[in-house]
Amino acid sequence: MAHSRYPKRSLRITDTQADVPRDVRDEIEFHLEMRAQELVDQGWEPEAARAEARTIFGDRQRIEQQCRALSQQVSRRQRLVETFHSFFSDIRHALRYLCAHPSYFASVTFTLALAMSLVTAASSVVYGVVLRPLPFAEPDRVVTVFNNYPKVGALRSKNSFQNYLERQHQLDSVEDFALYSEQTRSVGEPGAVRREFSMTVTPSFFRVLGIHPRLGSFLAEEQIQPGQERQVVIGSRLWRERFGASSEVIGRILPVDGEPHIIAGVMPEGFAFPGWDAQIWLPQVVDSEVAERRLHGENFKMFARLQPGATVEGAQTEMDLRNAAALSQLPSEIQTRRSSGGFGTRIVGFHEDLVRDVRGWLLLLLAGAVFVLVIACVSISGLQLIHTTGRLRDLATRFVLGASRLRLWRQLLTESLVLAVLGGGAGIALGAFSLGWWLHRFETWEIPRIDEVSLGGPEMIVLAAGAFAAMVASTLMGVFAVSRRDLFAVMREGSATPPASSGRWQGGLVAAQVTVAMVLLVGAALMIVSLRNLLAIDLGFEERSVVAAAINPPTVRYPNPEAQMSLFDAVLAEAASMPGVRAVALTSRLPFSEWDEMTPIVAEGQRRDPGGVAPNHHLSAVSSDFFEALHIPTLQGRTFDSGDDRSAQPVVILSREVARRYWPEGEAVGKKLFLGSEPGPEDPGFTVVGVVGDIVQEHVTETAAGAIYLPLRQFPRGFVRVVMSVEGAGGAGGVALEGLRERLAILDTELPLFWYTDLEERVATSLMSYRLPMQFLSLFAAIALFLAAVGVFGVLSRSVALRSKEIGIRLALGSSRGAVCSSILRGLIGFVSVGLVAGVGVALAFSRILGHLVYGVSTTEPAVFAAAALVIAAVAALAAVLPAQRAGRIDPVRVLASE
Amino acid sequence: MAGSNLYSGTLDLLILRSLVWGPLHGYGIGRWIRKSSSEILKVEEGALYPALHRLEKAGWLKSEWGMTERKRQAKFYRLSKQGQQHLHAETSRWHEHAGAVQAVLAAERS
Q1: A297-300 contacts at long range (C-beta below 8 A, 24 or more positions apart)
Q2: What is the ipTM of this complex?
Q3: What Å distances lie between residue A368 and A271, A340, A780, A848, CA to CA?
């Protein structure tokens, strides 16, 4: 530092440690000297002039004191202003620098923004679905309850009335149990009937939710009893749309499925039951006097609210004891069913249970996005390293000219912050923008609560902060490089030759990139193979150009099966007469449509194994053209025809799996069977008239349970689906459904057609839990691969540029160009290999998590790993081509002449 | 505040006025004021300095150390943008005031 007085003072304005007293003293001293000089010029003696100057100046001490006081205030404020000023000037400087290097600026910002947008969107989805609290009071106390019979493979059965009666108020750790089931209902006066999602619930349902009505009250406790005037609770959306949010709605009559219901209350604003956005809540009547068959039918979902402080484990223990104690009081049939099935009741946190199918996937998705962020940060570190080496000379010059090392660091740090803020901010904006696209993709997957996802959440903020720190850290690579450099040495050497250590740094970064790319690529490859395996599975029916919709004739107007059947016949005739409809049929259940009915059977003349459990088979009641509409092949015998009605002998068609199980010799046609496990003595049974091909019922990965088909005329159902196979693809199905709706309106103005289904879409949706993660992982892997390629390219280009002199000498001394290229590549191969090995290790560590997410392929499948490694090696080689060529093209004469 | 009493108000105005032609150090400002109006600084010349620092604090002046023609280090003052505006406003006010006083003094008995 300079010690002479004046230069020090000339720095005063930028010196935040201004010495106020000395400045004031100097200023006044100057005045006195000048004033004395003036007097000398007028003829005064120097000594007298000085004395006179002091006299006319006045009380110097007091004046100096006043000046100091004023000046100190100025200086304090000035310091603050200067701090701000220098901060903004740093930012301005950084921006100016970055704008002067647009390709560097753009590549860093773009990489960061891309990675950050993925993390933003993924974490928003994870928060909205997995982490965000449910719309219940104290949601941690709400649990799902379901029965299971593990010995017969029924891991998730529902609950019965009897279960409710034997559990409610019987467990110390549970405050309330509630039964509920989900349906759709025709709601409203004739002429304004609309289909609404509904729930039928015990009055305890609302206590389990722990919420309060917006208006009126919830269902009264006695609504559970039979013979009451029926009440209904409506959702706030329905309340607004149908009743204009009128406060006088309580007590009014609302027809539900044609029956009058009194509106008891309105749900709180915005309440959406997770997974079933109902707008109608009807009372579930629990009549302990009803037939035993209904009492024990496990047709209801159940949830419960734990007592404050009770644990899920405690409730589970209590439930197990309760089940054991209740067993002896049950009818013998139920006792047998329970003991043979290994009956148990599971209690699981409601939220945990709700997201059980998607939680793993969504976390995997988030992990993938975080991996992309990691590889992006690594790439940026690499870019920084290259870039900073390129400007070492500039930095060294400024260092030599007096900028402190701290000052240089501060500038580099400011640049990093600017990059992180711009890149991260752009990423969050892009994430918010792309979230809609993500959600659109996810909608087809039918994830619970996905429609409630919005940007953000506290966890996302934490994640964003972490990501921001990672971005700053990665952009700080240049700062580390400078701190390790002797800037004077750079000046002395006259060239920006960085020490070898930065090459090692860069190689390490390439290895890290390859590691991450390997992990993502293996994940994506496993998903691609899984999906290919799934798509190769034969469904057993044709799903293309098949559409369906449900009708449910109200019993008020169609009181008996004959009336319903004549309506169905009219519907079939109308549909068949429509242009473009190839085949039309009715069925009580449709594959891939979450509506199932299963039954065991007993074949005539065969005895069930004593103690063995009869397997369940899918049961459908279908009209005659069902097999034609779905292209299910007839293997033996015949399909149904119009003669198979109630006056004729009961008949049945089996799928191959069922036929093979009971009549392995292929002699099923003409034999007799009984539905249920214990046929009564009067049961006439059903005669097998045909055998058809097996079809996949719910999911391509299911184990075939086989199917039994009954003629709809003999086995009437009030709730059926109209299935139409149409000609032409794309919109033809939708057009046909619309046509059907119009014709149906002519037959019966109050009969809504609902649950429009496109079977091809349903099948595709059932694969979404594989297809979507595959798509996202592939996207992530592609990004990772690209970034790794850029990394390899950067390292090699730099190494060629730095070694051009050495290469020139080697070429001049007779080395072949091939040898030069391979010497350039040798280091790279080492780093890539290290990355591949590490990637295999990390991928193997993750393989356990991936285990239940893949199909038909092992998560440690060597072929997949080999393929991924090969792809990375190929991409690395491709990225190396250009720099290696450049090395080979170096002209030794030019290089040596430039020395 | 400046302008609240006649003496300091006038001194402030003179200081600002002295800087209209460019930066000056304290001594130069004092000399200009002495030449323009022998009365104001008669009591003590040093009173100029607290006034300068006060005006700087008010934001009407900026100061900077620099070299004089004789190669001496001195603290130079110059008008800030605000200072210029203030001078302009004060000058018009002064003219009005002076005009009013003039009118009163010149008024004839009616």
Answers
A1: A297/A160, A297/A161, A298/A147, A298/A157, A298/A158, A298/A159, A298/A160, A298/A163, A299/A158, A299/A160, A299/A181, A300/A158, A300/A159, A300/A160, A300/A161, A300/A164, A300/A179, A300/A180, A300/A181
A2: 0.87
A3: 33, 44, 7, 16
Alpha-carbon gap, residue A150 to A346, rounded angstroms = 11
Place of tokens 């010059």: A397
Alpha carbon A526 to its chain centroid, in Å, reads: 19
- A669-709 pLDDT tens trace: 999 998 876 777 777 889 999 999 999 988 887 777 889 99
Residue (of A590, A564, A586) closest to A576 by Cα position? A586
Inter-chain CB proximity A74 and B57 less than 8 Å: yes
A249 φ, ψ (degrees, to nearest 5): -75, -25
pLDDT single digits (tens) A816-859: 878 877 877 887 888 889 999 999 999 888 887 777 778 888 88
Question: Among A862, A860, A853, A859, which Cα is nearest to A364's?
Answer: A853
Tokens 């949830």 sit on residue = A303
pLDDT attached to residue B38: 61
Backbone phi, psi, residue A283, to 5°:
-75, 140
Residues of B with CB under 8 A from a CB of A: 25-27, 30-31, 43-47, 49-50, 52-54, 56-57, 64-65, 72-75
Is the Cβ–Cβ distance between A830 and A507 less than 8 Å? yes
| CA distance to A341, A481, A508, A880, per residue, from A501 (Å) | 68, 10, 11, 21
Contact B92, B40 (CB under 8 A): no
**How crowded is the C-beta side of A212, counted as CA atoms within 13 Å?**
1
DSSP state of A267: P
A722: helix, coil or strand? strand
Chain position carrying tokens 């159902």: A717
Structure tokens at B17: 């006025």
Q: Is the dihedral of CA A616, A618, A623, A624 positive or negative?
A: negative
Q: The pTM is what?
A: 0.68
Contact A27 B43 (CB under 8 A): no
- Sign of CA pseudo-dihedral A14, A18, A23, A24: positive
H or E element that contains A149:
none
Q: Do A63 and B31 touch (CB under 8 A)?
A: no
Q: Which residue has the tokens 């034609």?
A: A628
Q: How many other CB atoms are there within 10 angstroms of residue A297's CB atom? A: 14
Within a 10 A sphere around the Cβ of A58, how many other Cβ atoms? 17
Q: pLDDT at residue A494 above 70?
A: no
Inter-chain residue contact A28 with B50, CB threshold 8 Å: no
Asked if residue A687 lies in contact with residue A651, where contact means CB atoms within 8 angstroms, the answer is yes
> Which of A38, A50, A67, A78 is most worth mutating to test chain B (most B CB atoms within 10 A of its CB)?
A67
Sign of CA dihedral A531, A537, A539, A543: positive
| Cβ distance of B49 and A27 shorter than 8 Å | yes
Residue A661: which residues within 8 A CB-CB, separation 6 or more?
A615, A706
**Chain A partners within 8 Å of B65 (Cβ):** 9-10, 12-13
Distances (CA, A) of A711 to A292, A706, A866: 27, 17, 54
pLDDT in tens, A263-290: 999 999 888 888 788 899 998 887 666 6
Pairing of strands B24-25, B73-79: antiparallel
Please tell me the distance from the alpha carbon of residue A269 to that of residue A395, in angstroms, as a whole number: 62
Residue of A nearest to B72 (CA): A30
Amino acid making up residue A354: L
The vertex-A20 CA angle with A8 and A70, nearest 5°, equals 145
* Residue predicted with more confidence, A697 or A11: A697
What does the pLDDT read at residue A631?
93
